[in-house]
Automatic annotation (TrEMBL):
It is a multi-pass membrane protein. It comes from Fictibacillus phosphorivorans. PANTHER family: LIPOTEICHOIC ACID SYNTHASE, PHOSPHOGLYCEROL TRANSFERASE I. This is Sulfatase N-terminal domain-containing protein. Pathway: Cell wall biogenesis; lipoteichoic acid biosynthesis. Signal peptide: none annotated. Keywords: Cell membrane, Membrane, Transmembrane, Transmembrane helix. Its main location: membrane. Residues 333-627 form the Sulfatase N-terminal domain. The chain crosses the membrane at residues 12-33, 49-67, 88-109, 121-143, 150-169, 189-222, 234-252. It comes from the Bacteria.
Length: 694
């Protein structure tokens, strides 16, 4: 016995030393192989360091196939299985601990993999922790009813929750938004999304993650092979399946079931207007469930045919009383929309130095032609939501957080009025263009709903020259020119580019023509890649303008960036460059929303300072500049813009370009009317359609 105790103590001591060394190595890798930085990190984050060390220790203990430990396990298992009461008690405890472990995995990722925040949340939200664990318990029961194997079901549930949690953590890291149920509408494109996300990690981090994944899988396989698997009888499996389905239904519809009362007693308080806080305060389970059966657009109070038509008729009367817009010599010019992926001016990072201006052409054109900034409704992603605003004149402010109107609303409709349908009524040919997968965001179906005559994508475009991993903006420019030349009718072309899509790996292009300094080497390298990409976009714009100057067809081009680029994890480069405004959230939100806006024409049109405006006001602004007669809906949008040119979730900007102000009665009424009309045209019965889109 003494010899056994001595051997076990020695082994545990050796495991402890190896665990300490292993933890230091892991932390060193994730700190750029700098041992001094790793030591500093360990001193500042003692809980995390201890967590990593314990994890390595347990892994070593589990993988060590020492005979005496194996004998002890076999003896314990034999005693347990010989007593049905001990066996039942063991299974009950094991299952409950499993449910805690599964939710713990989810909440660990929700806490940003910060062990301190993870522990603090459990201590402060114990009731929510227990109730959420109940949901995960029946997820485990569901797999147990399918497999009939106690331990195999644990591994299956664990893998599922880990993947779910890791996906959520990565979305929070790069986009600052949680994982929504609506995100799973893109699950069919997962193979295309994975390379985009993986490209944001360094090679070393990917190697370490791969190594850790292999270790975990090996650990699970070895442990499972050594376990005395406990089988579940068929009657118990059937009972668990029925209970699981019932509990799933109760949780999935919890606002209408008894779970709602339990949630209220557990202090679950849903915060719909701030989803990151909603997930943070209520945990991953209730954060996700609270968005499961939420309509993208709530019906406004008082919505009816009479109420909508009263608003629409009033707008029509106001439009008819106004003097007709002064028309120029050009009746129906070509109109080209170019929504440029992540197109932004990086020189706004004031403490960063560039060897040359990445946007010289765009900058000169913005001085000569009407220009300003677009107030994007998104950051880093959600391109289709920006496109939705620009084409329809609707606003994301009135939709629920996490909504994807292309996939949740528009693809279910036969027709939605837009700038496409208005221009086609004027005998325009319409063309949509996107140099990527045609089914992304269901564009192939949505463009049909809008009424586009043709949709060119990566498979049908003729110009397909690549730059980095995507078709270049120069190819898109050439494709636009080719289609304008080959069509005798006036055209509306709507192009959504891909060249500058995240991530911005250092080796993305063969050579970067712009050098960046002022930040850390890794940040400089990422910024150089981004600057090179938008510099190429700038030259593509130069090509387009030069060719348009040489043709006789009058053409208007509207170019804007869909959103700011993702630069570093958790906006690390923006923070390093002192771009953040931590003490003024509205100012920071505005800074992270403004992208360049240019309205160029190859013929004489008046120049205006467009200042800051939402994408939903691009259509009426363009019609005014071109002297085109507006539909009544655009007249209404003009009135809204005159009071509130910037409208997005969480932010309003008035005509003085201020974000801090009190809404007047007129502004409040305009927003109510805007919301009512948008609901009617997008979700409701379209009572106002014939009145507002004559």
């Amino acid at each position: 016995m003494k010899k056994f105790i001595y051997q076990m103590s020695s082994l545990l001591f050796i495991h402890g030393i190896l665990s300490l060394i292993g933890a230091i190595l892991i932390i060193t890798v994730f700190n750029g192989f700098r041992i001094d930085t790793a030591i500093d990190w360990g001193q500042l984050h003692t809980k995390k360091f201890a967590f990593v060390t314990i994890g390595v220790f347990l892994l070593l203990c589990s993988l060590s196939g020492f005979s005496k430990m194996q004998v002890i396990r076999e003896q314990a298992a034999s005693k347990m299985t010989n007593s049905k009461y001990v066996r039942a008690l063991y299974i009950i405890i094991f299952i409950w601990l499993t449910s805690f472990m599964l939710f713990g995995v989810l909440q660990f990722f929700q806490s940003g993999m910060d062990i301190d925040l993870f522990i603090d949340w459990i201590q402060g939200k114990t009731k929510i922790f227990l109730l959420s664990s109940l949901f995960l318990l029946f997820l485990y029961f569901f797999f147990l009813s399918m497999t009939g194997r106690l331990y195999l079901s644990v591994f299956t549930s664990l893998v599922l929750t880990a993947i779910f949690g890791l996906t959520h953590a990565n979305k929070m890291t790069f986009l600052g938004e949680p994982l929504y149920p609506s995100d799973f509408k893109q699950v069919t494109h997962i193979l295309e999304v994975i390379p985009m996300v993986l490209g944001a990690f360094s090679v070393w981090k990917l190697l370490v993650l791969g190594f850790v994944f292999i270790l975990i899988v090996s650990y699970l396989v070895i442990i499972y092979s050594q376990m005395n698997e406990i089988k579940t009888p068929w009657w118990a499996r059937g009972l668990m399946l029925c209970l699981s389905i019932f509990i799933f239904y109760s949780f999935f519809n919890y606002p209408k079931t008894y779970i709602n009362a339990l949630a209220e007693k557990s202090d679950v308080k849903i915060v719909r207007w701030n989803q990151p806080s909603n997930y943070r305060d209520n945990g991953m389970v209730f954060g996700f469930l609270s968005n499961l059966h939420v309509d993208a657009f709530d019906k406004p109070a008082g919505y009816s045919k009479k109420a909508v038509q009263e608003i629409a008729n009033r707008i029509q009367d106001q439009a008819s009383e106004k003097q007709p817009a002064k028309k120029g010599d050009v009746k129906n010019p070509n109109i080209v929309f170019i929504m440029s992926e992540a197109f932004w001016d990086p020189t706004k990072l004031e403490n960063v130095t560039y060897s040359k201006d990445p946007l010289p052409v765009t900058r000169e054109l913005m001085k000569k032609y009407s220009s300003g900034s677009v107030l994007s409704p998104t950051f880093g992603g959600g391109t289709s939501n920006v496109e939705f605003e620009a084409l329809t004149g609707f606003s994301m402010r009135f939709l629920k957080a996490g909504s994807l109107p292309y996939q949740q609303l528009i693809d279910q409709k036969d027709f939605i009025p837009s700038i496409v349908s208005d221009l086609e009524a004027r005998k325009y040919e319409s063309l949509a263009m996107h140099p990527y997968n045609k089914v992304f965001y269901k564009r192939n179906r949505v463009y049909d709903t809008f009424g586009f005559d043709q949709f060119l994508h990566m498979e049908s475009m003729k110009n397909k020259e690549m730059t980095g991993p995507y078709i270049s903006d120069e190819s898109v420019a050439q494709e636009i020119l080719d289609n304008l030349k080959n069509n005798d009718k006036p055209m509306f072309v709507h192009a959504v580019t891909m060249q500058n899509h995240f991530p911005y790996a250092a080796d993305r292009y063969k050579k970067n023509s712009i050098k960046v300094s002022g930040l850390s080497p890794a940040s400089n390298a990422e910024l150089e890649t981004y600057a090179e990409g938008i510099s190429q976009s700038d030259r593509a714009l130069e090509l387009l303008v030069k060719k348009l100057e040489a043709i006789e067809e009058p053409t208007l081009v509207v170019l804007w960036g869909d959103h700011l680029p993702i630069l570093g994890q958790n906006k690390a480069i923006y923070e390093e460059a002192k771009f953040m405004e931590p003490y003024n959230p509205k100012v920071e939100l505005q800074k992270f929303s403004e992208t360049p806006l240019l309205m160029y024409a190859n013929y004489d049109v008046p120049r205006e300072d467009l200042k800051v405006m939402s994408p939903s006001f691009i259509g009426p602004t363009l019609f005014n500049l071109a002297g085109l007669e507006q539909p009544p809906f655009y007249t209404f949008l003009d009135e809204v813009k005159s009071e509130l040119p910037g409208i997005k979730p969480g932010l309003l900007i008035n005509n003085e370009q201020r974000s801090e102000f009190a809404l007047s009665k007129k502004q409040q009424q305009l927003l109510k009317d805007y919301q009512m009309l948008q609901y009617d045209l997008l979700v409701g019965k379209q009572y106002s359609r014939e009145i507002l889109f004559k």
